[in-house]
Amino acid sequence: MKKALVVLGLTLFCTVVSQNAWAKSDIGFKRLGVDVGMVDPEAVGSTIGFGAFADLGTISPDVRLSSHVNYWNKSENQFGVEAGLRDISVGARANYMFHMNSSKIQPYVGGGPGVHFFNVKVDVPFSPGMTVSESETKIGFDLGGGASMPISPKAEAFSEMWYTVCDIDQFAFKAGVSFRLGESGASMKRSTRGR
Predict the structure, then answer these.
(1) Of the candidates 90, 163, 113, which has an alpha carbon nearest to the alpha carbon of residue 13?
(2) SS3 label, residue 6
(3) CATH number of domain containing 51
(4) pLDDT by residue (tens digit) across 11-22?
C-alpha cells in the first residue's frame, strides 16, 4: 500500500511538471524560510520538528517548487534504558497554488519526494559501554498543503499539514515564516502567491 502511494504521488508530480510548464517558468531562489511544529511519527509518539526551506520559483503560473530540510528527534527513558529515534530529511515539493479573489490568503496543495536519514540509538547505562546505534536511509513521499499570508512587504507567515509515506509514516503540522530574496516590482506580486 505504501509503495502504491509513493508511485501514485511520483506519477502525479511528474504529470504536473510536464504540462507545458517550462514555457512560463520562473526558476531561481525566491524565498528562504523556517518552520516549527508538531510531528507525529508512526508508533513513536508526538514530538517537536524543525525545518528550513528555499522557494525555488515557479514552473508554471500556478505551480511552485521548493526544497526543504526537516529534523525531529524522539527519546524515551524506561527502567534506566534510554532509546532515541531521529529523522533528518531532505526533499523537494511542487505546490499547486489555488486561484483566490483575496490576495491576503493563498492556499496550496502539493507533494514531492524526500530522502530520510533515520538513526536509532539505545543506551543502557547500568551496563558499561552498552550503546547500540543503527542508521538507515529511506525514500519517502510528502502529501499535504497549507496556506500563506503576507505579514510585511518581504515576509509571509504560513501554516501547513503534511503526511509522509515512508518506512516510518509521519504526520506534521507546522507554522513558520519566509522572507523574500531581493525582488521588486512585478515579480514581487507574482511570488506573493505562496511558497
Answers:
(1) 113
(2) helix
(3) 2.40.160.20
(4) 555 555 555 444
What are 162-185's pLDDT values in tens digits? 999 998 899 999 999 999 987 544
Alpha helices in 19-87 (DSSP H): none
- In which element (H, E) is residue 88 found? strand 81-97
Model pTM score: 0.75
With vertex at residue 95, the alpha carbon angle to CA 93 and CA 96, rounded to the nearest 5 degrees, is 155
- Gap between the Cα atoms of 177 and 159, Å rounded: 9
Give the bridge partners for 38, in sequence order: 48, 173
Q: How many angstroms separate the CA atoms of 21 and 24, rounded? A: 6
* Pick from 96, 91, 11, 92: nearest CA to 58: 96
Q: Residue 174: name the closest of 151, 142, 150 by CA.
A: 142
Cell output for 142:
510528502
Q: From residue 77, how far is each of 63, 73, 106, 127, 193 by CA, in Å?
A: 44, 14, 42, 15, 45
Contact (Cβ atoms closer than 8 angstroms) between residue 93 and residue 110: yes
Q: Report the number of distinct structural domains present in the chain.
A: 1
For residue 152, the enclosing domain spans 2-191
CA 109 to chain centroid, in Å, comes to: 12
Other beta carbons less than 10 A from residue 8's beta carbon = 14
